[in-house]
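Our preliminary data section would be incomplete without showing what the modeling component actually yields. Below, a chain of 187 amino acids is followed by its predicted structure, encoded as tokens that our downstream tools consume directly.
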Amino acid sequence: QATSLLGAAVRSLSTSSPHEHPEHGRLVYKGNLAKAVLGVKFFSYSTSIFNLFMMPYIMLKTGIGFESLFVQAAFYGLIGFFTFVTPVTLHVLTKGYVIRLYYKDEVDTYTAITYNAILAEKATVFHREDVKIPDITKMFTTFYAKTKSMLVNPTLFPNPQDFHHLMGYDKSLYFNLEEEEEADGRK
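Predicted structure:
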């Protein structure tokens, strides 16, 4: 009976391909920095929490509460910077990093998986028409999905055609010369 249960478990685990996700579609992209982003954010959050819990102890043991106002402001500013500004900055810089990107052929929708502020995975669903390419290359933005900036590495797409379709590079360029002439005539 143990063998039959093991066989059933193996069959149930192998029913879906690692590249398929039933509700999201086919996996077209997997970011290689996902674990690094998660690790850095987790480390930053944990050190901030540690600082918040250690602050009263440090103030009591060092006697900084009785020093000059300038020393107090410098100390609290430094601790406050590393406690609050660093995690917020890391979140702002990495919130658009796409961990995984799925594509559903039937409805032409993409699902981008990113990390939210509490380190949980967040799914953003958008259509190909919602993708906007920034006019000027931005450091942490490859494209905008609706209004949310997304960062992907084009070289990590196993099939380059998936990236071209996402960015709209596979659309044919059609120029209507009559419309252009009418637009020039109105000016």
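The first strand starts at residue 20 and ends at 21. Residues 1-18 have pLDDT under 50 and may be disordered. Preliminary results of this kind motivate Aim 1 of the renewal.
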